[in-house]
Write a structure and sequence with these properties.
Blueprint (H helix, E strand, L loop, with lengths): L1 H15 L3 H9 L4 H6 L6 H13 L11 H18 L7 H12 L3 H9 L4 H6 L6 H15 L2
C-alpha cells in the first residue's frame, strides 16, 4: 500500500510542481512525510486517508519554487513598500556634512561611524531616518573638525 501511495504522492507533486515537504506539511503537517515514506515508513490508516483526500480533492499547494507565483510577488511588493516607507525624504542636515567629509577624506562610512560615535552603522542608520541627539551632532562635528586638522 505505501509503495502505491508514494507513487501517487510523487506523481501529484510532479504534476503540480509542489515540493515533497510542502505536500507533507499540507497533508499531515509533517514536512518529512515523503522522505520517511521513501525510507520505508508505514503510515497509519488515518494518515493514508488524509493523503488520499488531499490528492483526490486536487487542492492547490504552494509551488516548489518559492521565488515564483503570486505569493512571492506579493511578498516582494510588500518589502518594496516597506523600504519606501522607511527611506527618509528629508534626512538630517548633518548627513550632507558627513557625505562631504567622507568624500574629502576618503574614509568609509563605517569607519567614520566607528571613530566618531563608536557605531559602524551610524551613517547608514541616519540615511534610513534615525533620529540623532544634539550631543551626538556636536560629537560628530567635533570629530570632523579634529580629523580635518590632521
Amino acid at each position: 500500500m505505501s509503495a502505491q501511495l508514494l507513487r501517487s504522492i510523487e506523481q501529484y507533486c510532479a504534476d503540480r510542481g509542489v515540493a515533497p515537504s510542502m505536500f507533507g506539511r499540507a497533508a499531515v503537517n509533517d514536512p518529512r512525510l515523503v522522505a520517511d515514506l521513501r525510507s520505508g515508513r508505514q503510515p497509519r490508516q488515518e494518515t493514508v486517508d488524509r493523503i488520499v483526500s488531499l490528492i483526490r480533492d486536487g487542492k492547490a499547494l504552494p509551488s516548489a519554487n518559492p521565488k515564483s507565483g503570486e505569493a512571492a510577488k506579493a511578498r516582494r511588493e510588500a518589502m518594496d513598500r516597506a523600504r519606501r516607507q522607511h527611506w527618509v525624504r528629508d534626512p538630517h542636515p548633518i548627513l550632507a556634512d558627513i557625505a562631504r567629509f567622507l568624500l574629502a577624506s576618503g574614509m568609509s562610512a563605517s569607519a567614520f561611524g566607528s571613530m566618531a560615535v563608536d557605531d559602524p552603522k551610524f551613517v547608514e542608520s541616519l540615511r534610513w531616518g534615525r533620529r540623532i541627539q544634539p550631543r551626538t551632532v556636536r560629537r560628530v562635528r567635533e570629530f570632523m573638525q579634529t580629523a580635518e586638522g590632521r
